[in-house]
Design a protein that fits this description.
By secondary structure, the chain is mainly alpha-helical. The chain has helices at residues 3-18, 23-34, 41-59, 61-71, 78-99, 101-108, 112-132, 156-168, 176-186, 191-201, 203-219, 230-256, 261-277. The protein has one domain (3-138, 146-277). It holds the Pfam family BacA.
Length: 278
């Protein structure tokens, strides 16, 4: 992999990790377009994922720091409540990661047409959430608007359902951010609450997923970076980090303004191109 290819794919990863268009799907697409070999690609994937995790921490640092300070007060407060709901949301993907990782990887493989199918599913979810998100679960049977809702804007059951959406997003082409945000909106979570929760809930699963990949690689006798080189890894990391900073901020604003349907259209177009040209 050349350094400019790594930089380009790092930018793609940084943008698509936060924008609801599937980062895994786009990495597969660009890997096919550029003809990048599989040797060392796991190292690259680990590097760019850590870059997007770092960009998330930078964007939401004030919220993360507030949660950490609240936890060390050792009492049940708003911060503890929020952290526990994030933990609940991670249960489904943890089960999939620990017990069904090999099955899922074998089920989907590297078929680019699978990406196209799940991009269509992403488009459907985004469209439904844009039109119906905020209406479901927000009105009482008599048509009146319900009260302020659960603590921190999300209930435990909603956190679990959003977590189920995240577990389904292990499929290539099914956007992690798109699925979690759409699922939350369709469950009645307010737009202003959903974007932050969606991005914070994926931090630990993403890190855990990449650490498992590293352990598998080390267990196979490989050394990190041996198949790709330091310069491409650095270029990919920087591209993903800078693009991730921009995309994360943009996505938070777009969720609040109900602009997800345009990403649904994009996913639809890309899926059709895959079926026609693939």
């Amino acid at each position: 992999m050349e350094w400019w290819e790594a930089l380009l794919m790092g930018i793609v990863q940084g943008l698509t990790e936060f924008l609801p268009v599937s980062s895994s799907g786009h990495l597969m697409i660009f890997r096919e377009l550029l003809g990048v070999e599989a040797d060392g690609f796991l190292d690259f994937t680990v590097m760019v994922h850590f870059a997007t995790v770092l960009s998330t921490i930078v964007v939401f640092w004030s919220a993360i720091w507030k949660i950490l300070k609240g936890l060390f007060k050792f009492r049940y407060n708003d911060e503890t409540d929020y952290f526990l709901k994030i933990c609940v949301s991670m249960i489904p993907v943890a089960i999939v990661g620990f017990f069904f990782k090999d099955f899922v990887e074998g089920l989907f493989g590297d078929d680019i047409h699978i990406v196209g199918i799940f991009l269509l599913v992403t488009a459907l979810l985004l469209t439904l959430s844009d039109f119906f998100g905020g209406r479901i679960g927000r009105r009482a049977p008599d048509g009146s608007v319900r009260g302020e809702g659960p603590r921190n804007g999300i209930a435990y059951w909603q956190a679990l359902v959003v977590g189920l959406g995240q577990a389904c997003a292990v499929a290539p082409g099914l956007s992690r951010s798109g699925t979690t945000i759409a699922t939350g909106l369709l469950c009645g979570v307010r737009r202003e609450n959903m974007a932050q929760f969606s991005f914070l809930m994926v931090l630990i699963p993403i890190v855990g997923e990449q650490l498992l990949g590293l352990l598998d690689m080390v267990g196979g006798g490989e050394s990190f970076g041996s198949g790709i080189g330091a310069l491409p890894l650095l270029a990919g990391f920087l591209g993903a980090f800078v693009a991730g900073l921009a995309a994360c901020k943009v996505m938070v604003a777009l969720v609040r303004r109900a602009k997800l349907r345009w990403f649904a259209l994009y996913c639809l177009v890309v899926a059709l191109l895959i079926f026609v040209l693939g």
